[in-house]
What we know:
- By secondary structure, the protein is α/β, with parallel strands linked by helices.
- The protein is built from 11 helices and 10 strands.
- The protein has one domain (about 5-55, about 60-305): Rossmann fold.
- The chain has helices at about 25-35, 60-85, 100-110, 130-140, 165-180, 205, 210-215, 220-240, 255-265, 285-290, 290-300, and strands spanning about 15-20, 40-50, 90-100, 115-120, 145-150, 160, 185-195, 245-255, 270-275, 300-305.
- The longest helix is centred in the first third of the chain and has 26 residues, at about 60-85.
Amino acid sequence: MTSGSQRAFSVFVKALIAVDGSAESTTALQTAARLLHSADRKLEVLCVAPEMPGRNTSGRAGRTRYRQRILAEASRILEEAAASFTTRAGIVNYQKQIGSPSGVIVDKAADYDIVVVGARGREMTGELGLGPVASRVVEHAPMPVLVGRALRSEEGIRILAAVDGSAASLAAVETLDSLFDLDSGEICLMHVAETPWLHLGLEEDWQTYSEEDKDSSEEGSLERELVREGEIAVEQARKLLHNRRLSVSTRIDQGDPANEILSEAESGQYDLVVVGATGTRDLKHSMLGSVSFKVAWNAPCSVLIVREPEQVA
């Protein structure tokens, strides 16, 4: 039996969408409404109002006034969220709560198939990034997280799925196939062979090698082996995609995974990047920095992050 992203999906796609009245959260809601399966889905739109800030010196009456005011503001935000749907939403419930926004979202996440949060995009500020709530949700939520940014395409979607053969990246492709509306879409399965000497400062030296020297060197043999592993990983991911109307292409690059993924996402004008999050058990990425987190923070489009499935007794 499995838990996390590998648990059996319910008959309905259950999505928890966090809104806070910002343009970013409204965009994320609209993006989720378009990307997720439109049939048989339940969307829970949640507004978490913050606790009374600072030291409480106003007594019970002050706390009551604050609670009434902040819940009224949350109701207004939810009404605006309801009016922002531009596609058939399915079953939608609206919920407001007082507490720590990131804490409440993470605590609720296990009851849903996917969690949706907003993030800055260039169409809003000219800068990319995750706010403090989205950052904590991406880091701690046990279920798949969609960081929703504005879609580029009016019809169909372009998807870049990063695959490396890990359980996390395969779970990410399975989640994409299970939860998202892929009709008339295009997907590129991308593998980046992470050559280890790049992180030892040897990239420049390696580039000066002749092709003959590369072919005969131990580094060259390792590079070819990494490329072969990438071809296997891409083929594994391809077999997981069951939507016949989805156009599938592949590419294998070499270099730093996060940088190569971000570069392709920008140049390829993608609507969605899909990545697996291996967690701290992956010592290499623990030392180098999280690829999934870097992509979520810096991608010019929406990002789906799926954690490595965990086996439980």
